[in-house]
Design brief:
Layout lengths: L4 H8 L6 H9 L4 H15 L4 H15 L6 H9 L1 E4 L1 E3 L6 E3 L12 E4 L12 H8 L4 H17 L1 H8 L15 H17 L4 H15 L3
Antiparallel strand pairs: 1-4, 2-3
Helix pairs in contact: 3-4, 4-7, 6-7, 7-8, 7-10, 9-10
């Protein structure tokens, strides 16, 4: 058993060969307490904004979610998030509004995806919420994470079933992944326009490469 939170965090840092982080992941098999600790570290890791770091933590996330034991679904819920209807307290009243009561347009946010593993106020979000937050300002990071999610769905039926059955972020979609194809189309058009203008060509080339890799799994 890892002695402290600090030591566990150090071992989970995806540097070098990553052998220590892989060992920690393997320790989560049939171990609920260790699984919770590692889930927290993985969520914090994928909420960073450096492509290299996020990519490495996503690789660890894939290994973590592929562990096959009685806690598999719990790990998925912790790291992906569980769909929750948006809610808001009415001004000067004690009751809340939920779901359709807060929607004026079909593309208004209807659901968020919450993790129970992080307590109190935190800036870190579960993966499904994080994708929605970064899809406009950090497109390449979003594409990298979408590739990871789609690859997991293709290779793991339990994960695929969970994501497919997740409620959509807005009522304009059937399920969570409903926005993926239109997002890919929009990003492709913007990226190809950037390449034609020869503006920051390496940036657009990297983004196009990430897009093509993600599209392969859709």
């Amino acid at each position: 058993m890892v002695a402290s939170k600090e030591m566990l965090g150090k071992m989970m840092e995806p540097t070098g060969s990553g052998s220590s982080s892989k060992e920690v992941i393997n320790m989560c098999l049939n171990n609920l307490t260790m699984s919770k600790k590692v889930a927290k570290l993985l969520i914090k890791g994928i909420n960073q904004y450096t492509a290299e770091k996020v990519t490495k933590y996503l690789k660890l996330l894939k290994k973590f979610l592929r562990l096959d034991d009685e806690f598999k679904l719990a790990r998925i819920e912790w790291t992906f998030g569980v769909p929750q209807l948006n809610h808001k307290k009415q001004f000067r009243l004690n009751n809340y509004q939920y779901g359709l009561e807060l929607v004026d347009k079909i593309n208004d946010d209807a659901y968020t995806y919450e993790t129970s593993i992080l307590k109190g106020s935190t800036s870190e979000d579960a993966l499904l919420t994080q994708l929605l937050k970064i899809r406009r300002q950090h497109e390449q990071l979003c594409l990298i994470a979408m590739k990871c999610l789609l690859k997991l769905c293709v290779t793991d039926p339990v994960i695929c079933r969970y994501v497919y059955n997740c409620a959509p972020p807005t009522y304009s979609y059937v399920n969570y992944t409903g926005w993926f194809r239109s997002y890919f189309t929009t990003v492709r058009a913007e990226t190809e326009k950037g390449l034609q203008g020869n503006y920051q060509s390496s940036y657009y080339e990297n983004k196009l490469a990430s897009l093509v890799e993600a599209e392969d799994y859709l």
